[in-house]
Design a protein that fits this description.
Layout lengths: L3 E4 L3 E6 L7 E7 H17 L10 E4 L3 E7 L3 E2 H8 L6 H20 L2 E2 L8 E3 L6 E3 L6 E2 L17 H4 L8
Antiparallel strand pairs: 1-2, 2-3, 3-5, 4-5, 6-8, 7-10, 8-9
Length: 171
């Protein structure tokens, strides 16, 4: 396992090398602190198979940690756009990314899941930079969302009804 290349509320992501596999990362959860998020993410990723959702390649379980083995990408969409497009993203590229994300979200919702933390940092840029992958399902919910869960969704990406603590969701 190599250097930590990213971290979030529930896990840290480390670069890794594995014989017989292309470049990978291992997303490490400390199960005593983040066991629910780890369980959710594994359940969702094992339930979904779509070309624009990050695939789980393997799961490594140790006494107090879980490691999700995932393909290595160029980085997240926020990093990529800041690095490559300092003057804005070309329309053709934006259309392609939005189309791919919508396709992934339709697939997620058709299987009864809600992502709950959609943001550029949870969209990974594939090897060729023409494809994006939806990632980070640790905050996801199963089934129709009738009541808001205020503890999910990164604060600066929350919908106004979540910030206002509206009691129900209407669409």
């Amino acid at each position: 396992i190599g250097d930590c290349i990213g971290s979030g509320a529930y896990a840290a992501v480390h670069a890794a090398q594995c014989v017989g596999m292309s470049q990978i990362v291992i997303k490490i959860f400390e199960t005593q602190r983040t066991g629910d998020a780890a369980n959710r993410e594994v359940h969702v990723l094992r339930s979904l198979s779509h070309r624009h959702i990050v695939p789980i390649l393997d799961l490594v379980i140790a006494s107090s940690h879980w490691g999700l083995v995932l393909p290595r990408c160029q980085g997240d969409l926020k990093q990529y756009l800041n690095l490559v497009y300092d003057q804005g993203i070309p329309a053709v590229c934006a259309r392609r990314y939005v189309s791919q994300l919508l396709s992934a979200l339709i697939h997620v919702h058709s299987h009864g899941f809600v992502h709950c933390d959609l943001k550029p940092q949870n969209v990974l840029v594939g090897d060729g930079a023409w494809d994006v992958l939806l990632a980070d399902f640790g905050s996801s919910l199963v089934g129709p969302v009738v009541h808001h869960h205020h503890e999910v969704v990164t604060l600066c990406y929350r919908a106004p009804e979540l910030i206002a603590r509206a009691p129900t969701f209407d669409g």
